[in-house]
## 1
Amino acid sequence: MLLLLTLAGCGGSQNTLNPHSHPAADIANLFWVMMAVSFGGLALITGLLVFAWVRRGRRGFGADPDDPHPGERPSWFVVVGMGVVFPLMVVIALFVVGNGVIISSTQAPAASSTAMTVDAIGHQWYWAFRYPGTKAVTAGELHIPVRTRVNLVATTADVIHSFWVPELNRKVDTIPGRQNRILLYANTPGVFRGQCAEYCGLQHAHMGMLVIVQSKAQFRTWLAKQSAPAAAPTTALARHGEQIFLDGPCASCHAIRGTSARGFVGPDLTHLASRTTLAGLTIPNRADYLARWIVDSQHFKPGNQMPDFNLSQRQVHALVAYLEGLK
Ligand SMILES: [Cu+2]
């Protein structure tokens, strides 16, 4: 029953055993090989135990025929052969297979072998993404083209995080002062969930991300839009919201390209309305949630680095109107 309970953790959109890339498939296969060998070992040991119990009191293989107490002395073949040589051979074989397969298929790609580079920057507690060579900056949701070798460069703005999208590849840690790389590749279009996989503080569990894999044409359109500066507000309410944003504390932590807001503590909001989720996948990107986030983000993510603000209903309304226009 307890084992069945653990099966409740299977499936979902963050499933190592549902690979969508070459490296992830190799990782899944290695898991199954190790699982099969482990179960084989378990079956062998259980079988030997049962066999020994059935034949208790009788002479074992290689036992001394003159021994007056057969069965009380171990047979050297069983002890050394099955107990030492055989497990060593199995473990060494798994080590060689595991490292041979996994290291070669998941290691950082040669720079010349990739079609594009994406920077993933870990922040307490969200992921920022940049596309070198363009002005595009986004957060929480990373877009890549399908069947394209992407060189993902993982860095951190503060502490150690770990970038992990289980259906696409292994983890890669973000170490202060260092750049670590990994291949990001997807066989099919789709949305793959990822998660910070290195405990990084209070809201570590709310540091999720989506990798949105699109057709090459869709991706090009998306990237061109993200590279453009923010849309100017069109209604009086939204213009009021922009004023509040630029004159108030918001602009000291957030950047909106095309305006004077250049903060870099929080996510770049230039095309906020094009995202489906907010705050590391913690809440959906809808007007009602956005409004509640602005006044009381601490309710959704206690301890996160955006303070609560004392804003009037009308100010919040205006801010939401402005932010919702940032398509
Ligand atoms: Cu983290």
Note: The chain has a mean pLDDT of 92.
## 2
Amino acid sequence: MRLLIRNGRAVDPASGLDAKRDVLIDRDRIVAIEPRIECPDAEVLDASGLVVAPGFVDIHVHLREPGIEHAETIESGTRAAAAGGFTAVCCMPNTLPVNDSAQVTSFIVERARRTATVHVHPIGAISKGSKGERLADIGAMRSEGAVAISDDGIPVMDSGLMRRAMKYAASFGITVIDHCEDLSLSAGGDIHEGLQSMRLGLGGIPGCSEDVMVARDIILAADTGSRVHIAHISTANSIAMVRHAKRMGIPVTSEVTPHHFALADEKIPGYDSNFKMKPPLRTQRDIDAAIEGLADGTIDCIATDHAPHTGHIKMQEFERCPFGITGLETALALSLKTLYHAGTADLKHLVGLFTSAACECLGLDRGRLRAGGPADITVFSTEREWVYDVHSTLSKSKNSPFGGESFRGGPAATIVSGKVVWTAGGGIATRPPSAPANKMPSFQPTTRIQPR
Ligand SMILES: [Zn+2]
């Protein structure tokens, strides 16, 4: 029943901790974090040379269940999350049917309870069917466990509806997450509008299609007092506007995906559909702005926008295939590579982007490492070299542009409610947090775990 994580570098941005610590877990709680803990009856996980962090939280994933289970299920998606070091995910409502009612929200909560490897928080829709016409049952979804509202994937074009949604959200104390895209400006586009779209003869999605909606949402957030979170921010202009809004005290936050700060549009190798997503990969100038935005707090957190699509649907002609890529298993490694090893974020800041800062955007009570708190812990390496094999992904889909990519550092072990659910050497170690602890984790006591 007891697990002792020994000799790790414990990093907890919320409390400022960054020191060598042992962490003792009893059932689903952390009971002690001390320089040296002796507990002879505890199973030992040797974390020498590894970072012991609060469980990572991804506030933007698509789990595809109900309705699109050939691409992903709550079970497969949360296994991929565990392999990426995440102990909790928030899932977007664009399923079939759309999560716009208490029934769908409670289905997801119940399904997660029975099949998920990590904690799952549903995000409810803003509008019925995400059609942008009538508000969804926000209060009812909230009662069933929805932590925020969003019509992600299908932008809310009607500013009047968005304003009403924000007023409702403010009264329930939840955040509105917006996928900022003016469809009249992005229509017919496949990649960012610029030299690369001209070179490839593909339709362009101009940066202004995002910027005008970010501007609108900031104005509406100021008007309603609602908390607004800009999903997958991607342009220098949008980042500048969020910076200005924060200085004015407007309650706006933002996230960036690893692919948006790791890849520029000029790196798109011809017509590989694994480089097609919304918003599209932007320019190096936008990437520089994102890294600066992460450094000065304009961008609050990193989220993956994990968007699985099955092979035969994604592997069509570039113009025909759907937007979106998977991202749970590569997020930490890409962030280590682009931010930490490049010297633009120290370890404490980087961990915060995946934990406490991400949780603050939605008001989630997670993302801290403290005695008495829940035993959701991410153990990772900053140094171990590995290659991402997309064919061994735990997701049902393989639409990642990072297959074959070499990384330095990545997840080593994922602990959910006190159970080791995944290790780099052993894959998924146990069943869901709610299942009885009948299976032992795959690591042996005092065995050193192999970071991937
Ligand atoms: Zn989106």
Note: The first helix runs from residue 74 to 83.
